[in-house]
Amino acid sequence: MTEAGRGRDGAAADGGKAPAPGRRRDAARSRELLVQAAMELFADRGFERTTTREIGERAGVDPALIARYFGSKMQLYLAAVRVEQGDAVPADLLDEDRLRGLLERFDRRGPGPSFQAAVLPSDNTEVQQAARGHLDERLVQPLCDRFAAEQVDRPRLRAELAAAAFAGVVLARSSGAFGELAEAEPGELLPLLHDLLAASRPAR
Amino acid sequence: MTEAGRGRDGAAADGGKAPAPGRRRDAARSRELLVQAAMELFADRGFERTTTREIGERAGVDPALIARYFGSKMQLYLAAVRVEQGDAVPADLLDEDRLRGLLERFDRRGPGPSFQAAVLPSDNTEVQQAARGHLDERLVQPLCDRFAAEQVDRPRLRAELAAAAFAGVVLARSSGAFGELAEAEPGELLPLLHDLLAASRPAR
DNA sequence: CGAGTATGTCATCATCTGAAGACATCGTCT
DNA sequence: AGACGATGTCTTCAGATGATGACATACTCG
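Structure tokens for the assembled complex are given below, as produced in the milestone run.
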């Protein structure tokens, strides 16, 4: 069981209604742990192959609380995507520094669940809608705007192409399907990937 | 591919005479139908979300025959990948004509199951091994050889990168996650994709 | 024709999974 | 202190799924 120091007095100390961080019973904390575990597992194994029991185990929280706090596994997924969306800065795939940031972050935390949704067919419209929205807002749209500003033809198509290619690379890297790709340091990969994505814009 | 003489099926394999096409009972035909249906469904919905009952329904064959003829759902998957592998020509991602062929083919039949395996983590080593082997043999290795012959640095990494990007684009296209990408004609997409993949080789 | 086997059909099992509910424990407020 | 709601734990349910085996039917061969 998750055991994070007792400190029942800490709870009493704070004047506000907000529960103290060390509380033994803290719904907000449980929700957070669940979302975090869900984000990792969904990204790592996909939606279907992740069970609520696994999520609960990793989070150190009883799986029944998923139903209580989120309603269902799917709504937990949506919550995870929203969190992933929340702490993400809009990325510019063509900017090498931004790209480096993305790569390093994925090395640490893995790509979010939405990347899989971009690439996998899903009959679950809600799930796919949320993930698509996230990707579109974060990756495609900025790129599309940039292309449009540069008066490149077919900006949207080019942006989607680059995003899809990027998703493929990132996912393949974390899936371990390709040996060298998975093991390459971000430093070695970065220039190659940058050149690749830069080619989504016509050569000047 | 359809039948590779099995031990116990002496009657069907005898005399080298293939069963008549109109036969009401034809194990080879049933196997073929199952593999075909499985290939489509696995590619379309992934391994986990495809049920043996669905496969049987689409094939017009009783799902119990999956167990009889292949042993298990997973071995059916392996059989499907082998068939996909069998009728595939090694593709050259940098050659525009070959690329066109691939795109058109995927438009008709969808990418095979192995593309998903490239991008999805799987705890099922057997399944993933088979799919990875297929991709490697068909996409990565030829490209790698080509790069090596051209004395490009890091040929393997570059080849894997290009293959991953290609997988991402093809999967995203068939998943429908990106609107314009999914709807674009192969003709419009081809030059853009070709330029993109060509950038896996350093500019000359 | 008739036996024997290959093939197909059906019912069923064991397991897993998401979800729901009963009950227990904790924290707060009066 | 005591009541009441919030939070957590455990059990259980209903449905789905992969797999299995018994039985039925068709084909081949003597």
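The longest helix of chain B spans residues 125-149. Residues 78 and 127 of chain B are 6 Å apart (CA to CA). Further analysis is deferred to the final report.
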